Amino acid sequence: MKQRKNGLRLTEDLAVNEDILQFVAKWKVPEFSDDFAEMIASLYRLSQQDPTSSDMVLFKRSLAELRYAQKVFSPYRGFKKVCIFGSARTPSDAPAYKSAMEFGRLMTDAGYMTITGAGNGIMAAAQQGAGAEKSFGLNIMLPFEQHANAVIDHDPKLVTFRYFFTRKLTFLREASAVTAFPGGFGTLDEGMEVLTLLQTGKARLIPMVLIDEPGGTFWKSFIHYVSENLMAHKLISAEDFDLFKVTDSVKEARDEILRYYRNFHSYRFVGPYLVIRLQRTISETRLAELRREFLSILQPTGEMFQRDALPQEANEPKIAKLPRLCLTFNRIHYGFLRKLINRLNED
Q1: What is the pLDDT of residues 146-180, one digit of tens each?
Q2: CB 161 within 8 A of CB 141
Q3: Which of 102, 136, 302, 335 is paired with 57 by a 20 to 30 Å CA distance?
Q4: Cα 259 to Cα 244: distance, rounded to the nearest angstrom
């Protein structure tokens, strides 16, 4: 396989490589030309691997679904969005339904857009509260039960998926926060996948809130099970409980989400550093306290310092002026990292 000077890997056939590069050059997208070239090279290599017809259907439809979802969300990238999971079977007179409706309204009032699975029950309630203008629906093709609710049906912000994995990827890729009301296997699957991705660092840390109906015990009972069976047998760590919050108050759920972005803005890895972008700098006294408190999540060098944007962040000019907190994070203890973000939001 040919290795170009800039690190771009294409195919072992130099003539094919040249054809790919010339083809992409005609698109006039210099910022992403290498990425498009690598994607086309992957298709070429696939063509040489004797794919089956089912392989081709999977790859073709998956890319098409992700591309279309990107098109729908692209005009709204400047808005924070909350993803709301919950049962499609919850009746409209149930307390959980009313809570979901109120939560959708509260998040719209807070400037957020709402993403649901587009079905009935909790999903319809949340979108009723949020309003169609501030809602997205990510529907799934099923032989029963899942039909777009009246709020989002025929809306241009409704996307229908054939595959669960492309749908789940879109949920989490677009969300600034995730919530889950009581639900069945689907809700548990979605919620636990989010927790797994947060725990392992495969998704960026965002607020996750499990919301019971007022006085309800659905999620409280689930957490009791997790504590008595997973935590007690050391199948998870105590720090994993910092990755989410359980409440039966939609106002408390809203406040948890808004608090997360009080000072914290975002983060990315740059070389050996995790670079946390903040709304405001923190004092040197506070920095020294955080360095001592979170020493266990730092690499042996134990670095934690403030500075301005790194040169590698030049492709994000809109946030170039934000102060940075840089640390040598060990990429293991994401529950502790979430706790660090909570501390930063106290300033």
Answers
A1: 689 999 999 999 999 999 999 999 999 999 999 99
A2: yes
A3: 136
A4: 13
**Model-level pTM?**
0.94
Which long-range contacts link 299-306 to residues 24+ away (Cβ below 8 Å)? Answer: 299/272, 299/328, 299/329, 299/330, 301/328, 302/328, 303/273, 303/327, 303/328, 304/328, 306/281, 306/282
Cβ atoms of 344 and 322 closer than 8 Å: no
Residues 200 and 124: their CA atoms lie apart, in Å, by 31
| Amino acid code (one letter) for 239 | E
| Residues linked to residue 347 through DSSP beta bridges, in sequence order | none
Could you tell me which residues come within 8 angstroms of residue 181 by beta carbon, excluding any fewer than 6 positions away?
84, 85, 86, 87, 90, 96, 99, 100, 122, 187, 211, 212, 213
Reported residue count of the chain is 347
Q: What is the pLDDT of residue 142?
A: 84
Model pLDDT, residue 3: 43
For residue 78, give the amino acid letter.
Answer: G
Query: CB–CB of 165/75 below 8 Å?
Result: no
Pair of tokens at residue 50: 């004797």
Question: Do 124 and 146 meet the contact criterion of CB atoms below 8 Å apart?
Answer: no
The CA distance from 35 to 6, in Å, is: 12
Residue 67: count of CB within 10 angstroms of its CB: 9
